[in-house]
């Protein structure tokens, strides 16, 4: 006689059995907490390793940590979950602009605001556009170049800065006691911010390693700096071609020195305050 009773081979008492938990795709920007360490962060990427799949989390301070994607290994909104690799159609990390900001797909350029950012020359403007162009268009900030700072006081007076038309200025070689520092002090005010970097020219704000050189050469006082750089590096004495070579080596903010990065970010924040 065949018995209809079905026996469960699992002899673990019911109160000790693991309750199934949801499987959640580790999509970019998903915020979770690792159960063992308590580290909380957003998913940056997933990787397949010899030891099994891993997930990289980024906390609010920008610190990254890699964890194995073990069952019941994470908390999502206080609930235990198992992270799994997302489908191949899902991006593994958020797209970012050259400045490191999270990109906004399909975002339209904002109508230009009254505020402006002035830089000394064409090369400065091209470098700022290469790294911060996407951010500036979203914010509606226009960058113009001055061809030097000698006329900056009259330019500022003509611009007429105010609460709704702030003016930010980026100056090369802004060091104590220089001509540039005296001019900066003359025009700086509540609605005008002048900042600068210590380099003779913005070329030098590009990391040598990114350009493929050991260091920027020392140019004797009195010699045109750009021409001296080309000579020191053994490049043809065509400063326009040299700049294009330098500019093409800049792919993101990581190729620039922090002394320039911080100053440009400061100007963008100043011009867009209250927006």
TrEMBL record:
DUF3097 domain sequence ranges: 23-86, 116-272
Name of the protein described by the UniProt record: DUF3097 domain-containing protein
């Amino acid at each position: 006689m065949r018995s209809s009773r079905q026996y469960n081979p699992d002899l673990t008492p019911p109160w000790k059995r693991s309750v199934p938990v949801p499987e959640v795709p580790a999509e970019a920007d998903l915020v979770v907490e690792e159960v063992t360490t308590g580290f909380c962060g957003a998913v940056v990427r997933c990787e397949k390793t010899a030891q099994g799949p891993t997930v990289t989390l980024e906390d609010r301070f920008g610190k990254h940590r890699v964890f194995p994607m073990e069952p019941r290994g994470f908390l999502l909104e206080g609930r235990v979950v198992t992270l799994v690799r997302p489908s191949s159609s899902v991006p593994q990390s958020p797209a970012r602009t050259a400045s490191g900001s999270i990109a906004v797909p399909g975002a339209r350029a904002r109508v230009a605001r009254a505020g402006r950012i002035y830089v000394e020359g064409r090369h400065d403007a091209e470098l700022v556009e290469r790294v911060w162009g996407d951010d500036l268009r979203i914010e509606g900030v226009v960058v113009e170049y001055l061809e030097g700072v000698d006329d900056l006081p009259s330019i500022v007076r003509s611009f007429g800065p105010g609460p709704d038309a702030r003016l930010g200025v980026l100056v090369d070689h802004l060091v104590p006691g220089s001509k540039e520092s005296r001019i900066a002090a003359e025009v700086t005010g509540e609605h005008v911010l002048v900042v600068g970097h210590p380099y003779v020219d913005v070329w030098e704000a590009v990391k040598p390693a990114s350009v493929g050189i050991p260091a920027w050469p020392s140019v004797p006082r009195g010699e045109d700096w750009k021409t001296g750089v080309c000579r020191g590096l053994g490049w043809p004495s065509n400063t326009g071609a040299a700049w294009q070579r330098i500019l093409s080596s800049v792919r993101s903010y990581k190729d620039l020195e922090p002394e320039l990065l911080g100053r440009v970010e400061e100007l963008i924040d100043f011009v867009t305050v209250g927006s």
